[in-house]
Design brief:
- By secondary structure, the chain is of the alpha/beta class.
- It folds into two domains: 3-85, NAD(P)-binding Rossmann-like Domain (Rossmann fold, 3-Layer(aba) Sandwich); 93-198, 3-Layer(aba) Sandwich (UDP-N-acetylmuramoyl-L-alanine:D-glutamate ligase).
- Helix content is 26%, strand content 21%.
- The chain has six helices and nine strands; from the N terminus they run βαβββαβαβαββαβα.
- The strands form two sheets. The chain has a five-stranded parallel sheet with strand order 3-2-1-4-5. The chain has a four-stranded parallel sheet with strand order 7-8-6-9, with helices on one face.
- Strand 1 (3-7), helix 1 and strand 2 (26-31) form a beta-alpha-beta unit.
- The chain starts with a strand and ends in a 6-residue tail after the last helix.
Length: 201
């Protein structure tokens, strides 16, 4: 059995932890906030470490799932990397269980509108797309595990930082202008995160 540590108790983190617990995996959830404002109930099988994020949380972990709001540069994740523990995001985790086709949209501006429009166009065409990602529900909470579906995903640079095997059948990069400079050391680093939408194409 794999042992997962989910870092960050926001929407993506809680959804990831609940998904893994539902599959019978051993999973822990950590957040630096001692009283995080969790978006929905946490599965009772999920161990919780709130208010601290020291290295003890890594004990036995085989995979780290990081929430998009958590920078990959925090000490806990840097230590995980040094220990060669894989660090992935919720999008990467969901993709490993996803069946079907992925249309992915990113950009500094206009991605929510574009994602919504693509979803509506597909509906009019008689498809039944699932629109998720940085819009609506996290992808991991929107998966149809029973049959292939078409997924239309809005993806932020934060979400794209931690993809590895994720492959979009159709990928759109609308534009790249300076944004989130409190997260990235420079514009090139921000743009590089956006370009990861084309990874594995």
């Amino acid at each position: 059995m794999s042992k997962y540590l989910v870092v960050g108790a926001g929407k993506s983190g809680v959804a990831s932890a609940n998904f893994l617990a539902g599959r019978g995996e051993e999973v822990s959830l950590t957040d630096s906030n001692p009283h995080p404002d969790v978006p929905y109930p946490i599965d009772e099988r999920v161990r919780r470490f709130f208010g601290y994020q020291d290295e003890s949380a890594l004990n036995g972990a085989t995979t780290i799932v990081v929430s998009p709001g958590v920078p990959l540069t925090i000490p806990l994740l840097q230590r995980a990397a040094a220990l060669t523990i894989p660090v992935i995001g919720e999008i990467e985790l969901a993709y490993r269980f996803l069946k079907g086709t992925v249309v992915a949209v990113t950009g500094s501006n206009g991605k929510s509108t574009t994602t919504t429009l693509i979803g509506e166009i597909l509906k009019v065409a008689g498809w039944q797309p699932i629109v998720a990602g940085n819009i609506g529900q996290p992808l991991i909470a929107s998966l149809d595990l029973d049959k292939p579906r078409t997924y239309v995903l809005e993806l932020s640079s934060f979400q794209l930082e931690s993809v590895e095997t994720f492959h979009a059948n159709v990928a759109l990069l609308l534009n790249v202008t300076p944004d989130h400079m409190d997260r990235y050391p420079n514009f090139d680093a921000y743009a590089a995160a956006k370009y990861r939408i084309f990874r594995n194409q």
